[in-house]
Amino acid sequence: MRWLQGAAAAVMAVLLSACGGAQQASAPAPGAIPTPPPQVADLYNRSCRSCHHGGAGGAPRTGRAQDWEPRLFQGLDVLLDHTISGYKGMPPMGMCMDCDEDQFVGLIEYMAGQALE
């Protein structure tokens, strides 16, 4: 009978550790960039990624809150103006000549890692 109790305890331990492992595996690694939503992925990859992924020319890096914080502080209107008109090393329209304002907001939200108001 003791072996049955020991086996049951071992099974429970395995099941509980599996649950904990699943939770840990689903958590993003620190500094990891999440996958963009499908409607943003193509636009990001063809227009933004080349500079914002690695921070080329001082571009704020995708998924790096510390890079985006001072820019977000300026507000959405300033971010959109800089995106549409160009700013410092960023070309006008951010290399997305067919993007509309809502798409730019989606791209900025993805890269900054937070919703804008």
Provide a brief overview of the structure.
By secondary structure, the protein is mainly alpha-helical.
Structure in words:
Mean pLDDT is about 80; it is low at about 1-30. The protein has helices spanning about 1-25, 40-50, 65-75, 75-85, 100-110. The protein is mainly alpha-helical and about 120 residues long.
Key terms:
0% strand; globular; single chain; mainly alpha; 62% helix; 117 residues
Secondary structure layout plus pairing:
Blueprint: H1 2-26, H2 38-52, H3 65-74, H4 76-85, H5 101-112
Total beta-strand segments: 0
pLDDT average, as an integer?
78
The radius of gyration over CA amounts to 22 Å
Secondary-structure content class: mainly alpha
Largest sheet: none
| Percent range for β-strand residues | under 5%
Number of helices: 5
